[in-house]
Write a structure and sequence with these properties.
Blueprint: H1 11-20, E1 68-71, E2 79-81, E3 90-92, E4 95-97, E5 107-113, E6 116-123, E7 138-142, E8 146-150, E9 185-192, E10 195-196, E11 202-204, E12 207-212, E13 215-222, E14 242-246, E15 254-262
Antiparallel strand pairs: 1-15, 2-5, 3-4, 4-15, 5-14, 6-9, 6-15, 7-8, 7-14, 9-12, 10-11, 12-13
Length: 266
């Protein structure tokens, strides 16, 4: 060893030695502290005390205290048909269920949202009928424009930017944690609305992070524009808050335990 060079003791080696019950290297300090640092500012310089985040209680198995309950299994009062005078979905065993009709009718919240956290549980029909996009198809449209796909993707091949967990025709999910048809599945998502300048030009695109059944499927992806079936998405200025929409795709998909938190993100 070079006598002019100080010995280096790696913290990981010390931690391992502690766990193994071995003696620590001579002169070791735990936790390791920087030596000869009079040029560093006092620790208070890098401490931030305001603004203080609001307190949100989150009981085990319960909802956050600031959650907005959109569907509690008993009433559709927070929802309305997108089409004027269109049919409403039905409530069955504590779930709101799509009633397939010749003319599909999406349902939207009466309350408008911009940035939001969303919890929603859904179930594809237990009897798997059709294939690809014909099976257990629905969708969650943030602001009525940006779709997080709902689809029975359990042993059901389809185009991967249209499978469950995708931003429809824009982003492929990281994984496919689908449960078998007939089982309840859970989305937890954070949506950041797009920002537009006063003249209508896009300042910042929308973003989405989503977990399906506890598995990350969309990691803060940038949304390219409103969802379109044919062609390519393109942003057009719209209000900063719009209703959340659930899609009727002529499949009796069910939803339950829907709640949201309105967010005001930078």
């Amino acid at each position: 060893m070079n006598p002019l060079r100080p010995a280096v003791v790696f913290p990981s080696l010390i931690a391992f030695a502690r766990l193994a019950g071995a003696a620590e290297p001579a002169g070791a300090v735990w936790p390791p502290r920087p030596a000869n640092t009079p040029d560093l500012p006092p620790p208070e310089i890098t401490e931030t005390w305001t603004p203080v985040p609001p307190v949100v209680t989150a009981p085990a198995g319960g909802l956050p205290s600031d959650a907005i309950v959109l569907f509690d299994g008993k009433s559709l009062d927070n929802w309305e048909p997108v089409r004027p005078n269109g049919p409403r979905w039905k409530i069955e065993d504590g779930a709101m269920v799509i009633v397939p009709n010749k003319e599909p009718c999406d349902q939207r919240t009466k309350q408008a949202f911009g940035d939001m956290q969303l919890h929603i549980e859904w179930r594809a029909p237990a009897e798997a009928r059709g294939h690809s996009q014909e099976r257990g198809n629905s969708g969650i449209f943030f602001m009525g424009l940006y779709e997080l796909q709902v689809l029975d993707s359990y042993n059901n091949p389809t185009y991967v930017n249209g499978m469950v967990g995708s931003v429809y025709k824009q982003h492929i999910p990281l994984a496919n944690p689908s449960r078998p048809p007939g089982e309840w599945q859970v989305y937890d998502a954070v949506f950041v609305a797009p920002r537009f300048a006063a003249d209508g030009t896009l300042q910042r695109p929308a973003r989405l992070t989503a977990f399906l059944n506890g598995v990350l499927v969309l990691p803060d992806v940038e949304i390219k524009g409103p969802t379109v079936y044919r062609g390519f998405p393109k942003y057009e200025a719209h209000p900063p808050a719009l209703p959340l929409v659930l899609q009727d795709h002529r499949n009796p998909v069910a939803y339950r335990n829907i709640w949201a938190r309105g967010l005001s993100l930078p």
